[in-house]
Amino acid sequence: MGNRVEIWLVEHDGKEISEVIVLWAHRLGEGLAEGFEGFVEFAVNHVSPITFHKLGDARTIASLLILWDYGFTHVLIDEIVSREQHDEKMKKLARAMFSLPDIRPRGFMRDVDYYVYRMDIYSYEQHGKETYRKIIWDFKMYHSLIINWNPDPCVHPIVDFKRYKWRDEELLFRAKVYFIMKNDEISHNIEKILDEI
Q1: What percent of the chain has pLDDT above 90?
Q2: I need a labelling partner for 112 at 20 to 30 A (CA). Which of 147, 175, 180, 186 fits?
Q3: Domains in the chain, number
Q4: Looking at residue 113, what is its pLDDT?
């Protein structure tokens, strides 16, 4: 049941990978690619000039994804419960199924249907005449053929990440988001590069 996916959040510090967070979802499927612009707006609305740098933190982005998904699942509950044709048993089932967010930490889970998401996160700071901060999200959706199932699930996520075969020919969706904070003003721009879903 569902369309199970992995979501890899890869934080870069210069040329090095500094953090990898792996999430998993049971029924998300292509929903994250389809709703990506909505998630970006959601993320921007949850930061201020003081917390702008958190958009470059993989752990914070993971928390925002779970929070965003929780709100989305409650919209589903309201939609199902509001339909008159559903009896009380169906409405109770809907509340039970969608009362928790679908996106969660992956842990030892190794179960994917078709898609794997990856977001590379880069942070830059410029000082001088013009001081500003820039954060880039490079968001990609791959066909799950990239997966190199690891017989030992107890490895660190950075090691696991390096074992995957991230091939461009398996890429189905790609978008880059540019967040800029200048003079305490936050702006962002989404560049959609590929959309084959």
Answers
A1: 51
A2: 175
A3: 1
A4: 80
Which residue type occupies 185? Answer: E
Q: Which amino acid is at 87?
A: D
Mean pLDDT of 55-72: 93
What one-letter code names the amino acid at 95?
R
- The secondary structure of the chain, three-state, reads CCCCEEEEEEEEECCEEEEEEEEEECCCCCHHHHCHHHHHHHHHHCCCCCCHHHHHCHHHHHHHHHHHHHHHHHHHHHHHHHCCCCCHHHHHHHHHHHCCCCEEECCCCCCCCCEEEEEEEEEEEECCCCCEEEEEEEEEEEEHHHCCCCCCCCCCHHHHHHHCCCCHHHEEEEEEEEEEEECCEEEEEEEEEEECC
Pairing of strands 185-195, 16-25: unpaired
The pLDDT assigned to 75 comes to: 66
- With DSSP H G I counted as helix, E B as strand and the rest as coil, what are the percentages for the chain, rounded to 5? 35, 35, 30
Cα gap 61→123, rounded to integer Å:
13
Structural domain boundaries, residue 23:
5-195
